[in-house]
């Protein structure tokens, strides 16, 4: 498919770009897989502290996964995707095993979904999440990650003051959307009801210009991993490349990588496998 000739509806429907199976099956299959892996994780021997409330919203609960190795005090926070209107934390623990085995604590937060709440509300919930991790759980080295819409939410926390006050060491952004404008005329926006103004306000590709990160770069040296799938649509490729370019322009340390042989869904499903290249990249990124 040639990017420029396709509508945003097509470009922002990740399932249509999957080569492993018929597009109609991908999302259901994805849910089946992530649910299965997440259930296995909950039955395993990890220390799980489930449903800790971090804010007033119905879904503002988080799960913490640890073992005896996680005293290293690195915490990976993984924000699930689903276009801010789908999925939940209970089926999003698939990245836990290899990370906890490497000594990294994993937090899987839930958040309220559109149309019940607005995207602006959801961004505020993630803000409350970071406050809770710092003030109540006393976590220090936070690695904020997310997939798709979850990468957008993680990227919405990129701000010098937030990074400094919440002890964010890095961002792990997987197949994210950083410019919301192309979603305006798509079916995705039915639940979101974004307009031109809110699109601009909530697009990290738009609202980071002019921020000064030089102060925190000398103190914290925050770093960014921006990855996307070979079989993501050209629009997703473009967004990740543009966003990595912007972060670089702002003087930040960025690694941009295309993960070959995967699509929008197995790019994260495979995180349950310790030998998958992105799993190894993330562990290395956090521990080195
Ligand atoms: N309706 C979308 C599904 C989708 O975008 C999606 C599904 C699971 C996890 C993340 C997704 N996308 C962004 O958050 C599609 O048909 O591809």
Automatic annotation (TrEMBL):
Alpha/beta hydrolase fold-3 domain location: 76-264
Record keywords, A-Z: Hydrolase
InterPro entries with a match to the protein in the record: AB_hydrolase_3 (IPR013094), AB_hydrolase_fold (IPR029058), GDXG_lipolytic_enzyme (IPR050300)
Name recorded for this polypeptide: Kynurenine formamidase
Molecular function per GO: arylformamidase activity
Gene3D superfamilies: alpha/beta hydrolase (3.40.50.1820)
Pfam families: Abhydrolase_3
PANTHER family tied to this protein: AB HYDROLASE SUPERFAMILY PROTEIN C4A8.06C (PTHR48081), KYNURENINE FORMAMIDASE (PTHR48081:SF33)
């Amino acid at each position: 498919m040639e990017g420029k000739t396709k509508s945003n509806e097509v470009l922002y429907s990740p399932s249509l770009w999957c080569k492993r199976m018929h597009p109609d099956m991908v999302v259901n299959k994805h849910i089946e897989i992530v649910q299965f892996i997440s259930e296995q994780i909950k039955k395993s021997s990890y220390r799980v502290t489930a449903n800790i409330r971090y804010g007033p919203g119905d879904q503002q609960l988080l799960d913490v996964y640890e073992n005896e190795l996680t005293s290293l005090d690195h915490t990976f926070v993984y924000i699930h995707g689903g276009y801010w209107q789908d999925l939940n934390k209970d089926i999003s623990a698939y990245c836990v095993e290899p990370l906890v085995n490497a000594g990294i604590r994993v937090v899987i937060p839930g958040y309220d979904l559109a149309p019940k709440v607005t995207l602006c509300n959801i961004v505020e919930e993630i803000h409350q999440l970071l406050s809770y991790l710092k003030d109540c759980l006393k976590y220090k080295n936070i690695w904020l990650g997310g997939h798709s819409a979850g990468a957008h939410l993680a990227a919405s926390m990129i701000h010098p003051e937030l990074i400094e006050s919440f002890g964010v060491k890095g961002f792990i952004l997987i197949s994210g959307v950083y410019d919301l404008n192309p979603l305006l005329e798509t079916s995705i926006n039915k639940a979101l009801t974004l307009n031109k103004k809110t699109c601009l306000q909530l697009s990290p590709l738009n609202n980071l210009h002019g921020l000064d990160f030089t102060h925190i770069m000398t103190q914290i040296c925050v770093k960014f991993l921006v990855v996307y799938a070979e079989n993501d649509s050209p629009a997703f490729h473009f967004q990740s490349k543009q966003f990595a370019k912007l972060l670089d322009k702002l003087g930040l340390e960025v690694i941009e990588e295309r993960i070959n042989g995967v699509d929008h869904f197995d790019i994260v499903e495979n995180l349950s496998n310790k030998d998958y290249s992105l799993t190894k990249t993330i562990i290395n990124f956090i521990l080195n």
